[in-house]
Amino acid sequence: MPYALGIDVGGTFTDAVASDGAGRIVSAKTPTTPPNREAGVMRAIEDLADELGIGVGELLSQTDYIAHGTTASINALVQGQVADVGLIATKGHRDAIYIMNAEGRTLGRSAHEIQDTLRQRKPAPLIPKYRALEVTERIDYAGTVLVPLDEDEVRQVARTLVEQGVEAIAVCLLWSFKNGAHEQRVRELIHEIAPGMYVTLSSEVSPRIREFARTSTTIMNAQVGPRLRTYLLPLQRQLEERGLKGPLLVMRSEGGTITADRAPEHAITTVGSVLSGGVVGGMRLAEQLGHRNVITTDVGGTTFLAGLIVDGEPVMAPGSIVNQFPINAATIRVHTIGSGGGALASVDEGGNLRLGPQSAEAVPGPACYGNGGTRPTNTDANLVLGILSERGLLGGRKPLRMDLAREAIREHVAEPLGLTVEEAAIAIHEVQNAQAGDLLRRAVVQAGHDPRDFVVYAFGGAGPAHCAGYCQDLGVSEVVVPLGPVASAFSAYGLAASDVVLSAELSDPSSFPVHHAVLESHFARLEADLQRGLDQQKVKFHDVTLQREVDLRYSMQVTELATAVPDALFTEHTGEEILERFETQYERINGSGAGYREAGVQAITYRVRAKAGLGFPVALPEIPAADGPDPAEALLEERSVCLDSRLGFVPTPVYDYARLRAGHELVGPAVVDVPTTVVVVPAGVTGRVDRLGNLVLSYQ
């Protein structure tokens, strides 16, 4: 029987899901094993095989594909554990990466940080100046060669970088997005001198206008590419040696996959791979439940993540920012804060309780894990409050130490604030809910939407324990906790259910609308590029759909809006139709009457995204129905739990998820124990088990 596997390697846990395409889905959750994360991956696959009652070799030999999301790229960038990179730029333009387009002090900063001008600082440069070298060449805005490439100079520069011991070279020449011939020749000359050198070209990685962002993207791709290669290729060999016949696919930031052997070439597109899995899983679940507008919320061990699905499709962004440097790579727009189950609680110099962004991560983990951690976390607070059982996590395989949790909270939070341990624990719990709720409001409202039009999906190891709290004042109609066979491995389910997604883009700044022949030419070129990319994948597709868009802006503005382009043949009316879509979207975000066509409209970048279905059904199965709404048959125990600072500790029924059936209703306060997570149903909230085994929360 064929299988599809999804594997999500997070900062604290590695989640895995296997589906046989016939309605059976099993999941596994194991601790992540840094720095050798492949050990945790193999352990998760072994657990999947045990759940299925077969050997690892048998499972892998029958696996059509493995879709893998990894934090390797983003962690490497954030922690600075990257390859030593050299840069080759056009003479006179090396310093673009250091000048930072006058944005360096503010990129990626909150409004509060931007207003605090005395504390603004540029980040440390991506590479030292002695590794940023220049060559003579010049191509103009139209792609015409004005000054030929000085090949002898390229050879000299390449030798200098090789002698400096760089592991990779980024090439970013002026106007190369219009004509990449000089960059391609530079790569050939580098490989004459250093055949095995990792070389990345801006014309291939980021063919967009704006030199600073294009250069930073190219450098960061070179920084993480070699590391991703040293992780993925051995993992792929190990899987093949254990019997894997299908391909290893890697999740990309834009919500699709790419083969593992090609992923290192486009390493920067995998930066948000783990972030995207939950949104893709939300799309698949929404298709089954009939929801069009969804807010996905994922509370893992390290972070809280929120994404939007509008009219059945994820909200996209043309790029992202890491360490105050822009990345030109299309991505599912995911809002994130460091506020997961392992977020560290502390008291600052002003006597304020802080939660995150630092995390206990997998090692040493929360204090209650007993692995040497001494600082309190969200997880420690939930244990003290009775939300978590001392039996522990992972079905009891991860016991929890109440004494260690209480001591950590007492020393670092309770005594500094003059509180009891219990008061400090509920304060930590409520700060987590408040931080998450604030992020959700910003994510939805700033995108121009009304939260009342949305349903929230809450998953991740800690999401079900907090979702009723952080959604309480949001105004959403209901909160769905995806349980069933995927429980807290929901992002891994999203990986297994994902498609292959590739994108291609080109920049051609001009006034808009342009002649329909220009549109036809640009999109024909992009679609041909995508077809070549799809042909290089090692999987079979059952269908391919294309989505066209163009980034538009009013003249004199500095940001663009990605605007959908009609599917039909281009006509003399197509440009006007695109303009109307742009103005509708602009006014929805900025307010009625905010548009001003008289200023003129400019097109900047054209883009096509190809989505290729893998043809493997990974739908959640239905569960048996209950005889009535009373969940008494699933009652596990009653324990003292504090879910509200106003109510304190109260006797609370705890239900065994395995015995809940479709139609059962839980009236809060209540707790649902799941092997890999726990669901909190506070007072004033009702939980109903739906046909797929999800717990649907509604406010009374």
From TrEMBL:
MF annotations from Gene Ontology: 5-oxoprolinase (ATP-hydrolyzing) activity
The protein's name in its UniProt record: N-methylhydantoinase A
Domain Hydantoinase/oxoprolinase N-terminal: 5-193
Classification via InterPro entries: ACX-like_C (IPR049517), ATPase_NBD (IPR043129), Hydant_A_N (IPR008040), Hydantoinase_A (IPR002821), Oxoprolinase-like (IPR045079)
Organism superkingdom: Bacteria
Domain spans labelled Acetophenone carboxylase-like C-terminal: 517-691
GO biological process per UniProt: glutathione metabolic process
